[in-house]
Fold:
Amino acid sequence: MTPTITAFESSPDRGKGLARDMRVRWALEEVGQPYEVRLVSFSAMKEPAHRALHPFGQIPTYEEGDLALFESGAIVFHIAERHAGLLPEDADARARAITWMFAALNTVEAPIIELQTAKFAEGDKPWTAERLPLIKDRIRKRLGELSDRLGDADWLDGAFSAGDLLMVHALLRLKPSGMLDEYPNLAAYVARGEARPAYKRAFAAQLAVFTGKAPTG
Structure:
């Protein structure tokens, strides 16, 4: 059965691949699973029909038969569990990959989202100028730790996994700030993720929503 995901009808990131449906699209492309997309407006996201799928009125959601899921990390985990290619077969390696999924969303992405909130949603508040350097310090601490752990490896734990997929997407949010360039191995790590054919297909599909042009290739 072909799953259906939801995405922004008009994405705030203007097609830069930062909206969270991107990571679900990427996962589906990595495992070779066709999918359909239902675009949702901001107003429709808050209506009862969508809240029945996502109680917090956000995207993405995932529908497959009678199964309905929300939260991008949970959806990626479901895809990785159902299809080969995103989690190792070895039990211990699989557990480590899942650990990196949690680390990406809880440890690394959290302060990055805090930075974006402070800059774009709270930029006019009197405390923002003092708060921003503190948030950046927290991000740099995490980036330094991640950089040390990655070293000169291509991926976090052997072969590419769902942990890398979520980590790369979390780090992509830092590209406009220039902070990622302070850690060359992390910048190269993100570039490797962006170079994957599955990522390129997912990015093109999401960009096509913004441009109104069907992806090619």
Notes: Residues 91-196 form a domain with the Glutathione S-transferase Yfyf (Class Pi); Chain A, domain 2 fold (CATH 1.20.1050.10). The chain has a mean pLDDT of 92. The chain has two domains: 4-85+198-211, 91-196.
